[in-house]
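pipeline/complex-builder :: batch 7 item 3
reading input block
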Amino acid sequence: MSHSPSVERWGVHEIKLAGPADGNPFAEVRLSARYQYRNRIVEAEGFYDGDGVYRVRFMPDAVGPWRFTTVSNVDELDGVSGGFEATPPGAGNHGPVRAVATGFAYADGTPYLPFGTTCYHWTHDMDEARERETLRTLAVSPFNKVRMCVLPTGRMKPPEVPFAGEDPHGLDKTRFNPVFFRHLEARVADLRDLGVEADVILFHPYDEGLRGIEDMGRDTDHAYLRYVIARLAAYRNVWWSAANEYDFNPAKTVADWDDILRTIQRLDPYEHLRSIHNGTRMYEVATLYDFTKPWVTHQSIQHWDATPTDAWLRACQKPVVIDEIAYEGDAGKRWGNITGAELVERFWEGMARGGYVGHGEVLSGGPGRPWLGNGGTLLGESPARIAFLRTIMEERRDGTILRYLGRRQPAQVTVELPPERGYKVELIDTWNMTITPVDRGHRGRVRVGLPRRPYLALRMTRT
Amino acid sequence: MSHSPSVERWGVHEIKLAGPADGNPFAEVRLSARYQYRNRIVEAEGFYDGDGVYRVRFMPDAVGPWRFTTVSNVDELDGVSGGFEATPPGAGNHGPVRAVATGFAYADGTPYLPFGTTCYHWTHDMDEARERETLRTLAVSPFNKVRMCVLPTGRMKPPEVPFAGEDPHGLDKTRFNPVFFRHLEARVADLRDLGVEADVILFHPYDEGLRGIEDMGRDTDHAYLRYVIARLAAYRNVWWSAANEYDFNPAKTVADWDDILRTIQRLDPYEHLRSIHNGTRMYEVATLYDFTKPWVTHQSIQHWDATPTDAWLRACQKPVVIDEIAYEGDAGKRWGNITGAELVERFWEGMARGGYVGHGEVLSGGPGRPWLGNGGTLLGESPARIAFLRTIMEERRDGTILRYLGRRQPAQVTVELPPERGYKVELIDTWNMTITPVDRGHRGRVRVGLPRRPYLALRMTRT
């Protein structure tokens, strides 16, 4: 046995053990570790990492001494114990993100405003140059969350897949492929180090019948969840998205998804954020999951329009994240060919209503395949404007009033300011990214004259 | 008695009679005329026009000899008979507009595509210069329908109102004001002569309690309808809109509106188009009237979004006219401050879905009050683009395929053309009003590369 002698709060503690390699260790060996801090015990699932190596990973949530003891149905893995010191978190480590009312905050209380993007398969090619490019792009982008899939899609021919055996037709879904997962978790760690949340999509309906992963049966689904969670849950930047477009999978019912979400909840000792993302025939009403169910932490939505955000928040007091609202692009599909201006409009509309909107890009003309599937470089016009919006949202303080005018162009607007304080009023051009002082020292009812153009906002700040 | 010796088909035949001026002729004298053409009899209501003058108006729908005999409860008005010749219609006279499936056509079979605008009170000021300006504006505009109110709104101080007595507090709603109506019908005739339909709004909820016209009681409502219809129904360009924003009138129930629409149907011998227009809290689902009711000829809708047109047409196989979809303007109200580009986008979206969209303008900066209320001059950017759209819609033939791309900007689109014919493909820029040939001689599946900008359409025409 070896293990990390010390780890920072919300870092990854790992125990490494030697054990049996015969039979099917993935299915036959059960391993976990009970971690104790003072009078509190947290149990973390372990996993088989191939070649007779077993590991348990754990994310300590408190600074100070921790002890652990392993539990296994195999003697040599059972009852192994040790201790380590959790040190204060390093710079940029605020812990995992939690839902707080209809917003989010890191575990240390720092507010977190999701500005997500999507690169479904940026890790599957195992193309190191492309992955580094993706990480460099993210580092200078406004995006602090990435939706990404564990499972490949039907048409891909990735060098490694999550399951053992011959891809695609000879897979053994009772065994996993540690090479695939080591690579995946290294990329999750890279995102963590950039301050980017990994919104990990566990199932999707894009298999086209090739690998049979849409309908593996309940036991295999559970084994898969157990393995993924054992490997990834200790990374503080992980979110669980039970599925992309869950309702496009005809093999699973809502009861199946309930069971999957409850299984995630049971297996993950850290209560990472959990949701499930709907498909929708665009321009029809979305088939949303019932987000009031207690095993869901936030509302992960696909819908082309942000204006129902008010209704979604009234129906369910959990954060609204419209992860897909159509993408900036020039693809043939409706979801992938709105203009940058239109996507920015939808970001502002959603955020003005108290929700959060996600980005994606499917523009042709770059050196590789589009960002949405494979990462790489961003070509669009929206990221700069989303960065501008992010700055404005993060600068917002209690008492700051933002009013977004969208496609409307009133000659003047009347703003009712609390009469007891003076306010500075600024005109924001959300597309041209300018902030122009209108006046300062306003109180009470203020009339502001506006230029005749769309995509304006007003910001009122206490002086 | 005097009467028109001849009148063109779908023109106005008028009988003038002398009768009692004492008492309340509006309430006490009943007058109608039975018009006979061959073996067919049509009865038209007459009306009291003040100063002991009674009139009956009638719109003959067939060329040839017509006979009439009056019917009255007053001896001197009863049994008066005569005849006249209906001549073929003059240039530009195609008869009244009818609903045909989910579209419209004039009575002579000429297709009619409504490109409506709204000037609610352009006649109420009786400002001749302004009215002439409005008519000149309409004459050079793409608009061939105007929504206009009979009743004034609460805050107006018009020189004449529809009722007798002292305006606003001393009105006698059992008597009408012929001066008001003579003026109104002269403007309806002006519109007719320009080829513009008058979508006459009979009730509205904008009285602010001043004249009590939102809750006059059933009998007074009926007398008002009888009088308006007797005066106006013979004008072939009249449409009946039972109300604007009917659901904003708390004094009337849906059953009341049913009764009003059925009363209009009973009193109007020509079956002019009949509908009723909803209010809506914008950005909530509109409270539409049930347009499947047999006394409604088309779906008159207020909604900010044209995309439900498909659903409305599925639910009810009658033409969809989104008379209010928000207006080009810079007003403080949400319904009155979208950009010209946004309004044009909504026009195309609605028409691409098989509906019709209405225009309105509330831009400040002109010499008078905005177009929406009072007519005058148009200042906006949308009318030129709506004219361009109208030309394209009117040029469309059987087999012409239009595909509107809206805010989407696909790098290419695939069009499936019937393989047995050659097609010319053109790229339409709906905002810049250009039509660019892409190629000619296409057959079957065609891929068309597109520039990266919004508001494009493709037109495929048989060669």
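note: The radius of gyration of chain B is 24 Å.
queue -> next item
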